[in-house]
Amino acid sequence: MSSPDDAEILLVEDNPNDVELTLRALQKQNLATKVFVVKDGAEALDFIYATGVYANRKIDNLPKVILLDLKLPKVDGIDVLRKIKSDPRTKHTPVVMLTSSQEDRDVLETYKLGVNSYIVKPVDFSNFVHAVSELGIYWGILNKTPD
Amino acid sequence: MAETGDVDILLVEDNPNDAELTQRAFRKSDLDVRLAIVRDGAEALDYLFGGKPRPKVVLLDLKLPKIDGIDVLRRIRAGERTRTIPVVVLTSSQEERDIVECYELGANSYVVKPVDFDRFYRTVSDIGAYWLVLNKLPL
Description:
heterodimer; A: alpha/beta; Rossmann fold; B: alpha/beta; 5-stranded parallel β-sheet; globular
């Protein structure tokens, strides 16, 4: 895992198994050292906006992508997404939903709020690892974000 | 090039070489991509607002004849039927101003066209695999 200021991928995930699997998949692409993990929506907002325990983080050092679960403790994924996409400081940071929800309502709502991409977590282990590897390469390497 | 029916990818590209390369990359991949190509921004808007089924993703060049890519993006995001279509800006511009503006207007992704032939090929295939297989679309 990276330090808060060097994070290229911010993973917002409360399920320890999914965190473990995601890190393992990203390790295969040599991206695991660039990931920072936060466990709920409130911590995600503290991280992104450099408040609370992350008050010493430089707010300009935004990650290349935020991988965001939907069902999160304290502040829900939808509300985290809404905040990111309505704040001029963070609007241009790519957010990818990584969730087990396949509900049409969730998909549509996140797109309307400006999510950059929506990935359904594959249930099968090897498919999960494959999906995370692909999205790590896409958003960590292929996609370009503002400096 | 698809003339009728559902289209997976709408490519908006005025450079015939880039269009040809992109088409070839998709033909070679295992994705079986149904690709439609339009050559300028006006044609792109005619396509998207002409009542055809929505493509799964739009690959949008920035410097386009008639109507610029930025304006096409702005119109896509303002249209009720088109606002949730994923738009990937695929351009040779690496200018910070372009990158910021595209994201602010709601581009889903911004990819710089690799100059190298093989890398261009691979990049296009990766974009197709990501948006057609991995990404989930709203209904």
